[in-house]
Amino acid sequence: MNVGAWIGLGANLGDARAALRVAVRALAALPGTRVLRVSSLYRSAPVDAGGPDYLNAVAELDTPLAPLALLHALQSIEQAAGRERPYRNAPRTLDLDLLLHGDERLDSPELTVPHPRMGERAFVLLPLAELAPGLVRAEQLAAVTGQRIERVEQDWVGF
After folding, report:
1. DSSP-assigned letter for residue 54
2. Arithmetic mean of pLDDT, 86-104
3. Given 25, 83, 105, 155, the catalytic residue
4. Has 53 been annotated as catalytic?
């Protein structure tokens, strides 16, 4: 049985736009998975990190993959894009976060769903609210108004 899953996408090294496009195509190629929608592309300042600005988006998936299987698939896509993890919140060629997986609630050493910090990050909340306003509360948006973020491109995926 398929469920709706929401994936946060980000990159701030190399050709970030191209990396995000490749990532969306890789998500669509996961077994039994369809990319239903992708938000506009946003530019945001790093949060709790240094480095150049990020490009961010959120994708809605329809997938049969269970949360851990989907997490492992996301990590494989990141590795294929050259993702390195030299330290926490390091700049990255690609970052894929499992934000929501249906109504699933999971808290394990490997994965927490819903994503534990999504409500603190404008680069997640704004693109998510663009696609699914009912998933983001007004007080969450108000709490991140001080974070620098701007929408830079609609229909950027190209498929």
Report:
1. E
2. 87
3. 83
4. no
